Amino acid sequence: MSKSLGVLLFAGTLAMAGQPAFAEPVSLSDALARGRDVSPRLAKAKAELKAAVGRAMQAGVRPNPTISAEVENFSGTGPYRTFRQTETTIAVSQPFELGGKRRARKEVAAAERSFAEIALRMADADLIHDITVSYAELRAAEDREALADSVHERAVELARIAETLVDVGRDPPLTKLRADALLAEAKAERLRAQSELLSARQELALLIGSEDPELSVIAQDLPPPPALPADAQSLDERLAAAERDAASARVHLAQAEGVPDITASGGVRNFRENKDTAFIVGVSIPLPVFNSNRGNISAARAGGEAAEAQLAQTRLDTRFSRRGAELMLAAANERVSALSGAGHSQASEAARVAEIGYQQGKFTLIELIDAQEALTSANLKLIEAQLDRARALAALGRANAQ
């Protein structure tokens, strides 16, 4: 072994030793709780909700008044060379919003806040779906790895028996070659199962923030999602509806912003020459000659049309996804029921009888291999059916999330 490789292996050993190990398998509820604590998508959605709350708070604030000071008639020529002719004016001006701008801003901010609240619930529902699926995939990977280990053990024993029978002259040399080929295939399948297990373990570990190198899960059936009325809105529909409401509020705001505001001012002017004072009052109104905000109004209306169309599309997508998940779940339940019933028991018994019969010389190697492969295939199909059922349950739960 090279020196550099040894250093790397030693460093890897120290890194693994420094990681916390969890002796107990992780339950789904624990995985969901830990995932919520470390999820970047939830942190992002929570931050966006805080921002929406801040904008809603700011939307109702009135414009600030402005204080101004002016000094006139000094540092000129003739009698204006000094400050004797100076006129000093101190005034306060206050803009007054017209057209319902403040109310329209508050409506937009409230709609955006509702949107952010629903988006946070959607982020949580998406996280639940992803962790649930990853949890089920890790469970399936553990089952496949255990099955691959069992098949490998049987292949090792079969190769030993075949070698003994060939040595005593009961079976031809071809028998040993076939058993050795079966063992090589079992070794390759076990390596593949181990690789899939590592990948599934890493995926769930990333989702829940685990550093356990031997992360494992509890074998448990996922609860069915609660039934909803046929006309119940999904989170996706509610989010699209909130976006439509926000778009409608933006149209009102754009229309309000097309109305000119009034700025009123008042103050006091001091004449230094004779010590007199006078009040001043002013009003200014912009003339909407060049800018009446028509472009923004048109854009806001188009945004509202797009939001309405998106809501209609989301309703269709929700129906398809919910119905598809229900069909997938029904099919998966049928498959699990069929694969875990009498057929599986018969395959197990056939493999057991074939192994005993082969050792006693009643069956050929091919018959034994066929029986074992039939059992392995039945076990793999059952694992995949259980995984499909878990995926369908997660999909239906996501479609019915509120």
TrEMBL record:
<feature type="signal peptide">
    <location>
        <begin position="1"/>
        <end position="23"/>
    </location>
</feature>
<protein>
    <submittedName>
        <fullName>Cobalt-zinc-cadmium efflux system outer membrane protein</fullName>
    </submittedName>
</protein>
<feature type="coiled-coil region">
    <location>
        <begin position="174"/>
        <end position="203"/>
    </location>
</feature>
<dbReference type="GO" id="GO:0015562">
    <property type="term" value="F:efflux transmembrane transporter activity"/>
</dbReference>
<comment type="similarity">
    <text>Belongs to the outer membrane factor (OMF) (TC 1.B.17) family.</text>
</comment>
<keyword id="KW-0175">Coiled coil</keyword>
<dbReference type="InterPro" id="IPR010131">
    <property type="entry name" value="MdtP/NodT-like"/>
</dbReference>
<dbReference type="Pfam" id="PF02321">
    <property type="entry name" value="OEP"/>
</dbReference>
<dbReference type="InterPro" id="IPR003423">
    <property type="entry name" value="OMP_efflux"/>
</dbReference>
<keyword id="KW-0732">Signal</keyword>
